[in-house]
Amino acid sequence: MHPFFPRPTQLAQNWIAQILRPGDVAIDATLGNGNDALFLARCVGPNGKVHGFDVQAAALCTSTELFEKNQIPQDQYSWHLLSHTEMQQVVTAPVRAVMFNLGYLPREDHNVITQSTETLLALEAACSLIDRGGIITIVCYPGHAGGDAETAEVIAWADKQGAAWHVVVYEKRATLRKAPILIAMQKKGADT
Ligand SMILES: C[S@@+](CC[C@H](N)C(=O)[O-])C[C@H]1O[C@@H](n2cnc3c(N)ncnc32)[C@H](O)[C@@H]1O
């Protein structure tokens, strides 16, 4: 990626870093190797909380190892071996940020991939949990098999969210392979 225009995964973190405050609650809806969750944990600090969701037990183990290596206290995070569609069962509002990084884990089973029907249900759940001024980021992979349709559905869904949200789509154009896309939504509040 051009150095001036960050990768969508990096830009998602840049924007979230401006919104999360110490003590906030944040969700990584697709925990994977725990890299985004570690970023969230650093933003919310020792008085905050990060919830991580994944359907692969291996993702939870890898993320725990990462957190232990980085000496993040255990009471600062909770992992859930659940689909992100279930987030309202285990997390209570208000939540300040929810990250989605769709698709599959690069070095794991590529058949375990996010499904658009579940993704849209999880996005609805995230919208219900998020606080005013809070942010949802979604990195989509239109270059993956099935990722093209999922990306289109997520963008169509985001477009319909109406007056309550600021919605932004960030996409590098004219690439040989379809580049990942970032969709970010900030819930409007008194000062946003
Ligand atoms: C691209 S990876 C996420 C990378 C991660 N954010 C990181 O920092 O390493 C996508 C993850 O979504 C998970 N996933 C797939 N379907 C899911 C679902 N319904 N609920 C939660 N996670 C799911 C996969 O198992 C995979 O680990």
Can you offer a commentary on this structure?
The model has no long low-confidence stretch (mean pLDDT 95). This protein has helices at 8-19, 35-44, 57-69, 87-90, 116-129, 147-159, and strands at residues 25-28, 49-53, 77-80, 95-101, 130-140, 165-171, 181-187. The relative contact order is 0.16. It is an alpha/beta fold and 192 residues long. It has a seven-stranded mixed sheet with strand order 3-2-1-4-5-7-6, with helices on both faces. The two termini are 30 Å apart. The chain has a single domain (8-187), classed as 3-Layer(aba) Sandwich (Rossmann fold), CATH 3.40.50.150. S-adenosylmethionine is lined by residues 28, 30, 32-36, 53-56, 59, 83-84, 101, 103-105, 112, 114, 118.
Q: Could you provide a short overview of the structure?
A:
The chain has 6 helices and 7 strands.
Keywords:
single chain; 192 residues; alpha/beta; Rossmann fold; 7-stranded mixed sheet; 7 strands; 34% helix; 23% strand; binds S-adenosylmethionine
Percent of residues in helices comes to: 25-40%
CATH third-tier fold name = Rossmann fold
Strand % is: 15-25%
Cα radius of gyration in angstroms: 16 Å
Question: What multimeric state do the chains show?
Answer: single chain
CATH superfamily: Vaccinia Virus protein VP39
The helix-strand sequence is HEHEHEHEHEHEE
Structural class: alpha/beta
Mean pLDDT: 95
The beta-strand count equals 7
**Spans of at least 5 consecutive residues with low confidence:** none
What is the number of domains? 1
Largest sheet: 7 strands, mixed
- The span between the termini is 30 Å
Supply the number of helical segments. 6
Bound molecules: S-adenosylmethionine
Shape: globular
Q: What's the CATH architecture? A: 3-Layer(aba) Sandwich
CATH class: Alpha Beta
